[in-house]
Amino acid sequence: MPLWATALTVLAAVPAAFQYGLWDSSAQDRCRRLELLLLTSLRGHDYWQAAALAAWRRGRGYLAVAALLWTAAALSGSMGMLQAVAGLAAGVVLWGLYFALGFWAFSRGIQANKLGMVLTIGLPVLAITFVKLGWPALSGLVPPGSVYHAADVGASLTWVAGVAASAALMLITARWTMRHCETQLRNWYSQHHGAMVLD
To answer: Is 121 in contact with 107 (CB distance < 8 Å)?
Structure first.
């Protein structure tokens, strides 16, 4: 059950991590969209809310099934209630971190393919590697590993450190990105729109 709940949580975070590709398939499409958006009175907070809503709608079903698994495991006695709550909390932090990093990439105009692959494939593989090498406590330091670790073993010192570090990175990235989002989008548009006109 911990493995399935973790996999579903990571799947729920895929739309949060790959925001650029979900909004625009190419720089030309992005320029066309920004031509309209940047003429409005929208601010960074508005872009943040729209992106969060879109990512949440695409991934919420996976997180709902993961929450159902945690609830069923807790009610059946195969997992403690504290473990289920810790797993759910780690899942929420994972989604929030992936969204903050994905939105940072989106606002800077960075294609999120590499970042998204690291977040949704690389970090789960790293967490699995720690477990296979006999270092399960270290898996709690990695966001996907913190979800698995909480559900499998329970909250530990490394789990608390991993979740706290992920939450801190999420908050710092979110705050900075919301403050600079509009400027970053305008800078990207200025650079790429000029290049498209010259082509």
So the answer is: no
Q: Hey, what are 102's tokens?
A: 């994905």
CA distance 184 to 115: 18
pTM of this structure: 0.84
- Per-domain residue ranges for the chain? 2-198
- How far apart CA 12 and CA 123 sit, in angstroms, is 15
Please, are residues 6 and 124 in contact by the beta-carbon 8 Å criterion? yes
Cβ-based burial of 77 (10 A; exposed 0-12, middle 13-18, buried ≥19): exposed
Q: In whole angstroms, how far apart are CA 39 and each of 11, 35, 115, 186?
A: 34, 7, 29, 10
pLDDT in tens, 93-118: 999 999 999 888 888 777 667 888 89
